[in-house]
Prior knowledge:
By secondary structure, the chain is of the alpha+beta class. It is built from two helices and eleven strands. The model is unreliable at 1-30 and 217-232 (pLDDT under 50).
Amino acid sequence: MINSFRNLLRGGAFLCLSCLLLASLVAGCAGPAAPLDPKKSVLDPQLIFSAGLRLEPTKSPETAVSPDGKHLLSVRDNPLGTDFAVVSLEDPAAEPVKFHSVTREWLNNATFAYSVVGWVSDSRFLFTIGGWQNQGPHKDERGLAVFLGDLSTKAADEVGFLPLPLESPPINAEFSVYVPSRNSVAIVATHAIWEFDLSGRQMRLVKEGMTGPDGVFSPAVKRSASCRTARP
């Protein structure tokens, strides 16, 4: 009777030790657990509204939302073409504010792409247009135009332009990043990095002779192989 009880205790102790070891291994694989903060509450997200919007293309979607969380930068398709607009996150019924547009005919015949860069403040934001410009001071030119939009005026102005010569292979702008500490836009183009200074409205070459954009600002940035490089 006593021996059976001792064997049971040994078996129970072995089982408990095995469970502890297994729990330690699982915790070790998952990494150290974050300490709980009793002051924070568990949120219950609610769907405010849904709409057919595109964030095109941005490597960090969170940059499309304004710092105060009230507005969203978006690309909107319609039967006539495509718009770059700002959508209100506070009032789903409000009409999006359009800052730029391009016709379907232009899109069908030329390389053209809107890109979200980010917000400079709660009301001012940046976006770029890459490819053949359909309007403005560089109409019919191939390059990357930097636009600064303002919700208070409901207008966007072209503040910078990087020519992209149609060579073989063509030079393309891969993506752009707003750098708040420098008040500038870093632009990764084919084999080069450029910086556009928003204060001085100057474009300067930072580095050239690069073999590719991977790992410069974000991992595995892929080029689009389907875009057209010349207008018919």
